[in-house]
Design brief:
Bound molecules: iron/sulfur cluster
CATH architecture of the largest domain: Alpha-Beta Barrel
Largest sheet: 11 strands, mixed
Order of helices and strands: EEHEHEHHEHEHEHHEEEEH
Mean pLDDT: 91
CATH class of the largest domain: Alpha Beta
Number of helices: 9
Length: 322
């Protein structure tokens, strides 16, 4: 904005802006597969955080195309309610009419459900959530659950009940993690339980390229098989989970399936979200590779030397680095 970066926000897709509240750059969990590790360590240059909350508001006012704001971290639900309201309340003013949806990404539903039930400011938090809904915004708590076990306790279920009583939705997401949830049965049981509790399964992610990836990753083809088999075990209401999705450099790439086209075995892929919205939902093809675990392991099919988006992606990245 005005030729200088606005700290602590990321305008990720045309309609979606991520906000990293300063106090929320920590987490109840320190998952060893976390791709947000720079947020937790002392490398200040790598860390994203809003130091001047006024500037992110100004930025959003200028960008009328933004409909969705995602508060993320770390975990924004680690902060006190009054701090959270510094980010949320301004968005309820008429000048942010274009912001229709506020999302909050959090692991707290699994790791600290007391946040919504017995913490000293739990009731204040619920009132804040209620206020957002009453002002006509869609409020979505993006709950990070890897395993049905995380939904199994009375306190976890009470947290869900209380959040839903405010009018907020809970959408759920997680990566497939080897040794933790790499089975269709675990996902099916988790999605069924989530639907019963009133949550909306949203994403099954592919384990990202991060520190301990080798220990936690599984081949893309296996992730896709887990997705398919899990889908077959749930009713339509559980089939809202999109996946398996790689949140990669060019955008969110879904593995639609494995097929044989013109005698070649291929992965069928498509973008759910992309740096250029025009790339979305155009099927594209990669040579089948049973060991590939990430987009960067894949090669274009049918003898092509590039995926359709690659030249434009290089241009976009060059523009950004200028
Ligand atoms: S819960 Fe999410 S943000 Fe927190 S450590 Fe785990 S992966 Fe990272």
């Amino acid at each position: 904005m005005d030729n200088s970066p606005v700290e602590g926000i990321q305008h990720k897709y045309k309609e979606t802006v991520l906000i990293f509240p300063t106090a929320g750059q920590t987490c109840h969990a320190y998952c060893t597969f976390c791709f947000r590790w720079p947020q937790f360590v002392g490398l200040e240059d790598w860390k994203f955080a809003t130091r001047e909350s006024g500037r992110f508001q100004e930025y959003l006012q200028q960008h009328r195309e933004v409909t969705d704001v995602l508060l993320t971290g770390g975990d924004p639900m680690t902060v006190k309610t009054w701090q959270l309201s510094l980010y949320i309340e301004p968005l309820l003013a008429p000048e942010f009419e274009h912001v229709q949806t506020i999302r909050i990404g959090t692991k707290s539903l699994a790791y600290w459900p007391y946040r919504y039930v017995t913490d000293a400011d739990a009731d204040d938090l619920l009132r804040l959530l209620e206020k957002v809904v009453q002002r006509g915004k869609h409020l979505a708590i993006m709950g990070h659950y890897e395993h049905w076990k995380e939904l199994d306790t009375p306190i976890a279920q009470e947290a869900i009940r209380r959040i839903r009583s405010t009018g907020a939705e809970i959408r759920t997401q997680a990566p497939v993690v080897r040794h933790i949830n790499d089975s269709a049965e675990i996902w099916a049981k988790m999605w069924l339980l989530q639907v019963r509790l009133g949550c909306i399964p949203y994403y099954m992610f592919v384990e990202r390229q991060t520190g301990a990836k080798e220990y936690f990753e599984i081949p893309l083809v296996q992730t896709w098989e887990i997705y398919r088999e899990a889908m077959q075990q749930v009713s339509g209401l559980g089939r809202t989970a999109r996946g398996p999705v790689m949140s990669a450099l060019p955008g969110k790439v879904t593995i639609e399936g494995v097929a044989e086209v013109a005698g070649e075995k291929v992965f069928v892929l498509s973008f759910l979200q992309a740096r250029d919205p025009d790339w979305c939902k155009r099927p594209f093809f990669a040579r089948f590779d049973g060991n590939a675990t990430w987009l960067s392991d894949l090669q274009p099919a049918f003898g092509k030397d590039k995926f359709f988006y690659e030249s434009q992606l290089s241009e976009l990245l060059n523009m950004k680095s200028l």
